[in-house]
Amino acid sequence: MSTFVEVAKAGELADGSMRRVSVGGREILVVRVGDTYYSADNKCPHMGGDLSRGTLEGTVVTCPRHHSRFDLADGHVVRWTDWTGILLATGRLLKSPRPIKTYAVKQEGDSILVDLGS
């Protein structure tokens, strides 16, 4: 069941910007890339980093904590961490790679709406 909730006005987000929004008891990330908006859980599934404080390259967000990278288009893991060797192997044993939850976004007039029911 779709539950679209307004999270921002279109003019509030510049191209390439990210914002953390608390809505519906969740902390979500809202991102604008060109004329397209994306939304996902704001907490990194690796170690809980605040993704809104990370970096954005196209649709890929990088966590500021352990540099895990996720594509906001569908949530898939681009890179679980920038660790290498035994650290990477140990890290994957302790916490296996998981995609980030994404949410459908639509624009109606000046309102940016996120589907929290998806």
Could you characterize the architecture of this molecule?
The protein is mainly beta. The protein has a single domain, classed as Rieske Iron-sulfur Protein (3-layer Sandwich), CATH 2.102.10.10. It is 8% helix and 42% strand. The protein is built from one helix and eleven strands. It has one helix at 85-94; strands at 4-9, 18-23, 26-33, 36-41, 55-57, 60-62, 69-71, 77-79, 102-103, 105-108, 111-115. The strands form three sheets. It has a four-stranded antiparallel beta sheet with strand order 2-3-4-9, with no helix packed on it. Strands 5-6-7-8 form a four-stranded antiparallel beta sheet, with no helix packed on it. It has a three-stranded antiparallel beta sheet with strand order 1-11-10, with no helix packed on it. The longest helix is centred in the last third of the chain and has 10 residues, at 85-94. The protein is elongated, with a radius of gyration of 15 Å. 31% of the residues are buried.
Keywords:
4-stranded antiparallel β-sheet; 1 helix; single chain; Rieske Iron-sulfur Protein; 118 residues; mainly beta
